[in-house]
Design goal:
Ig-like_fold; alpha+beta; 5-stranded mixed β-sheet; Immunoglobulin-like; 4 helices; 26 strands; Jelly Rolls
């Protein structure tokens, strides 16, 4: 007693997103009517079904059931051969159950989605943007890029003209837009353009964008130029009265006269100390005078301030001026080097406990400061969960994964990370099925470091 099961086709070909079928023949070798229950085993059991799942067969008779193969059109569907098995269990004779094995050959597919980040660029001489290329298929695809605008006013500069994108991944291509004509004044001009991503089989994906081109001179520049011209004219007319050489000469003469009077009345010696015959208060000294010169009168000090100090006194205005310049040079800020920085992080996580995250990180090098002004989040498979952007363990940004397909974040005040700190991209997957979550983040900004 028992059952014999046999597949009409041992190898079945199917394309993701489509359905293929084959027949399974059952023969009842027992002597009574038996009921057989069927189920599928193997890696492909999630998308292989049997209909009907229960069948009754008379002794010595045959029955046929249909096996259907419907792999999802997803990057997670593995391309290539996958084994499967159909198990047939007898109700009357459990020892007489049978297992029939076969192979399903899953084909590859490509699905390219492109997006400009940002869609609108701005610049009087050039504009910058990025083309995000998503391959939602399960096989690598080679993409060629081109751009065109209706008026022929733009030049397109792609970071690369040809790019290979692996299945289930996203790649970014820098794009520079240069207007063929520039203008000093006038209203802002907007150039609409279209970028095309074409695969090897001729499939095209197009994305529309625009470049906003302002004039080279700001709107208020003519008024500022008139005001500057008027200021120069006033300076040319009034300047000579402030720099009259006669007034300067007269001031020097008065200063020299005060210096001479002070020298005669104070009796100071050539090195700036009082002579031996006079005390600071004008009375005669009994020991030949003060040896330090520390008792000069206020009048004497005033005269010394308006004249040049003798050599060796250390109190000249020239020496003081030199110290001020040195101090200013010491306080001047060190020169720095600023470089554009771009990096990408991707996290994968199986459904698990809420609050349990898988992470990817980027560390800031020693002596550098990272300022992030642009973050682009991707959730190509529409997974569910939570993603976070952190500075070390501190959460800076938090989003529900199901709300993200392609999300662009621009910061007026950049996120700053000091040397040794880590940019962390964390993922908590809460898919209802057992499918793994995948999310990526593209970061752009500037790295600042002191020049050596």
């Amino acid at each position: 007693m028992g059952v014999i099961a046999s597949l009409e086709e041992k190898v079945v070909d199917v394309t993701p997103g489509e359905v293929a079928t084959c027949q399974l023949k059952l023969h009842n070798t027992g002597g009574v009517v038996d009921q057989f229950t069927l189920d599928v085993l193997g890696d492909a059991k999630e998308w292989v079904t049997v209909s009907p799942q229960t069948v009754s067969v008379f002794p010595g008779d045959d029955a046929t059931v249909e096996v259907s193969f419907a792999p999802p059109r997803s990057a997670k569907t593995v391309r290539g051969e996958t084994s499967f098995a159909v198990r047939v269990m007898s109700r009357e004779d459990t020892d007489g159950s049978a297992v029939e094995e076969g192979t399903v050959r899953v084909g590859g597919f490509c699905e390219v989605v492109a997006e400009l980040v940002p869609r609108t660029a701005r610049g009087s001489r050039r504009g910058r943007t990025k083309l995000a290329v998503d391959n939602l298929g399960n096989t690598p695809v080679t993409v060629q890029f081109s751009g065109v605008d209706e008026e022929g006013e733009l030049k397109f500069g792609f970071g690369t003209r040809v790019l290979t994108v692996e299945g289930g991944t996203t790649r970014f291509v820098p794009l520079k837009l240069r207007p063929r004509r520039r203008f000093l004044r006038g209203p802002v001009r907007t150039h609409a353009y279209r970028v095309t991503a074409q695969t090897a089989d001729g499939t095209k994906t197009t994305v529309d964008g625009s470049l906003v081109q302002p004039p080279i001179l700001p709107a208020g520049a003519p008024k500022l130029m008139l005001l500057a011209g008027a200021a120069l004219a006033v300076a040319a007319i009034m300047g000579p009265s402030f720099l009259d050489p006669k007034a300067v000469s007269h001031a020097e003469t008065v200063a020299d006269a005060e210096d001479s009077d002070s020298s005669d009345s104070g009796g100071s010696s050539e090195d700036g100390t009082p002579s031996g015959g006079t005390k600071p208060d004008g009375t005669a000294s009994g020991d030949g005078g003060s040896p330090t010169g520390g008792g000069s009168s206020s009048e004497q000090a005033g005269a010394g301030a308006s004249s040049k100090s003798p050599a060796g006194t250390g109190g000249s205005s020239d020496s003081g001026g030199g110290q001020d310049v040195s101090a200013q040079n010491d306080d001047a800020p060190p020169s720095v080097e600023v470089q554009s920085t771009e990096f990408r992080m991707e996290t994968h996580g199986a459904p698990g406990v809420e609050g349990k995250f898988t992470t990817d990180s980027y560390a800031v090098d020693k002596g550098q400061t990272l300022r992030i002004s642009d973050i682009h989040l991707e959730n190509p498979h529409k997974d569910k969960g939570v993603v976070e952007v952190r500075r070390g363990k501190k959460v800076l940004l938090r989003f529900a994964l199901e709300d993200i397909t392609s999300k662009q974040l621009l910061f007026m005040e950049p996120l700053q990370f000091s040397e040794g700190q880590k940019v962390v991209y964390a993922l908590n997957c809460t898919n209802s099925d057992e499918e793994e979550c995948t999310s990526s983040a593209y970061f752009a900004g500037r790295t600042i470091k002191e020049a050596s």
